[in-house]
Automatic annotation (TrEMBL):
This is Transcriptional regulator. It comes from Paracoccus methylovorus. Pfam families: DMSP_lyase (PF16867). Signal peptide: none annotated. InterPro entries: DMSP_lyase (IPR031723), RmlC-like_jellyroll (IPR014710), RmlC_Cupin_sf (IPR011051). It comes from the Bacteria.
Length: 194
C-alpha cells in the first residue's frame, strides 16, 4: 500500500512541526506514538468534497510564517487542499448561530479520512470569522497545532489564544471548544491517539 505523494509530504512536514511545539501535558508521548503508527499506511479513503465555507480556506492558507517548518506546512496544505473531503458536524446550544454553514472539518488520516484507519486521527478544522464551535469531548487524547488567530478553552477554563504555532493537549474526555475572532478564519490541525 502506498500513500499519495501530497499526503505523505504533508505528514513529513506536519508531524515534526507538531512534535517541535508539543510541550503540554502528554502531547510529546502522544505524538511520538502517532508518528510511529503513521509509518504504516492505511486504506485509500474519502474522495474530495468541498463546502461553501471553504471559501475561507484560501485566506486561512495564505499565511507565510517566519518559522520555515510552518511555512512549509502551509505550502503543503495549499498543495493538498484540492484532495480534502470537508464535512460538518452537529452543533448544539453552545455553538454559534449559523454554525452548520460556518465550519467544516477534514480528516487526513482516520475514520472517513483521505486514508481510512482507526488507530489514529489527524485532521483539520476551519471556522469562518465569528464562529464558535460547540463544547465537545471524546475518549482519544488530542494535541492541537493552531495555525491562525482564534481562541480555545478546555475543562471550562478561560478562553486562551495560542497563536500561530501554538500547541496544547486535551486529556481524554475533557470538554473543549474553539472560536474564531471576528476578523479571521480559525484554522487548526489536530492529532488524536485512539
Ligand atoms: Fe477535539
Amino acid at each position: 500500500m502506498t500513500r499519495p505523494e501530497t499526503l505523505q509530504h504533508l505528514l513529513d512536514v506536519a508531524l515534526p512541526a507538531m512534535q517541535a511545539r508539543a510541550h503540554d501535558g502528554d502531547s510529546p508521548a502522544s505524538l511520538a506514538r502517532i508518528t510511529e503508527a503513521s509509518r504504516t499506511v492505511g486504506n485509500p479513503g474519502a474522495t474530495p468534497a468541498s463546502l461553501p465555507v471553504c471559501n475561507w480556506l484560501d485566506r486561512a492558507l495564505a499565511r507565510e510564517p517566519d518559522a520555515s517548518d510552518l511555512a512549509a506546512l502551509f505550502a503543503a496544505f495549499r498543495t493538498l487542499s484540492p484532495l480534502l473531503r470537508w464535512r460538518t458536524r452537529t452543533g448544539d446550544s453552545t455553538a454559534s448561530e449559523g454554525f452548520a454553514d460556518n465550519h467544516a472539518n477534514a480528516m487526513l488520516l482516520g475514520p472517513g479520512g483521505l486514508e481510512e484507519r482507526r488507530d489514529l486521527w489527524l485532521g483539520i478544522s476551519l471556522l469562518a470569522p465569528g464562529t464558535r464551535y460547540p463544547d465537545h469531548q471524546h475518549a482519544p487524547e488530542e494535541t492541537y497545532l493552531v495555525l491562525s488567530p482564534g481562541q480555545f478553552r478546555r475543562n471550562g477554563s478561560d478562553w486562551f489564544e495560542p497563536g500561530v504555532g501554538g500547541s496544547f493537549f486535551v486529556a481524554p474526555n475533557s470538554v473543549h471548544a474553539m472560536r474564531a475572532t471576528k476578523d479571521a478564519p480559525l484554522f487548526a490541525l489536530w492529532a488524536l491517539w485512539a
